[in-house]
Amino acid sequence: MLNKIVICSLVVFASINAIAEAKFIGDPCDLPVVFCPEDIDLNGEINIDDVLQILLNWADCGDGTYRPVGDINGDCCVDILDVLQILGRWDTACIPKGACCLQDGAGCFEEMSEEDCLAQGGNWHGEDSLCQEINCPTLGACCFDDGSCNYVLSTLCIESDGAFQGQSSDCTTSLCPLPGGSGDECIDAIFANLGENYFDTSLATTSYPLPDDSQCADTYLYWEESQDVWFLFVAHSSQWLHFTTCDETSYDTSIVLYEYSCENQVACNGDGTGDSGCQAYYSNIDYEVVAGATYWIRIGGLGGLTGIGTLTIE
Length: 314
Fold this sequence. Notes:
The chain is 16% helix and 26% strand. It has helices at 2-22, 48-56, 80-88, 114-119, 154-159, and strands at 97-102, 107-113, 122-127, 139-143, 149-153, 163-164, 190-191, 195-200, 229-234, 239-244, 253-259, 265-269, 284-289, 294-301, 308-313. The N and C termini lie far apart (73 Å).
């Protein structure tokens, strides 16, 4: 009876191998070994049944047209090395392990089975996946229009119309701006929306530190001691956006973009191109925003010029 079970299992395993090898042109022995090759009979465990299947094909070596059943170390022959490899994993289970993201923001754990991951309410990312390869949701500071701050997941922050301040950010160090600000400083930023946003720098003061013009060399940022205004924009979806001061009635502007904080400058521009119906010299930035992230748009003028204008986000 045992011989019948072994032979039946061997036929099943050989059939699976044959299907995989049928899609491969070349020597089947060049294919990588399957997950948990010691489990020859595919019953999820490594035990005497797998050794018996090796014995049925003892000393068999592939001839370039097949890989013998029982070759588990990848040398295309069934011998003592395969037996030793089975003994090294004797009486263990073959369960795929991978990275698991816990949905409460507790982080990522590797070498976890799908069953264990799901039992903890996590999201399993597949066999042999690594935490460094995936982006698990993490907690961070979430600012609201009334100036309050909660420590929540980025997804929950976005759903609540909050402004996520970045992964691992903290409410004790994040400055949440209040609505209705004058725009004269970052903390008093004016809340911007998609579309047109009016501004006037003539009554503004100079903010410090000054922008870093190395990010937009040769675009004539020429910020100097420019009076400037600040806008705050919360991205509610991940996409490319166009920030422009194109307005035929406006002046020669300069623009700087910050992500997550007023210190993290990510782009700048003095003289832009590509827009139509603009003043002689305007500025624009194309940037791929992240859903839930907060952006500050700082607007000044060439060599300290001031005036009125329009910030358009589209």
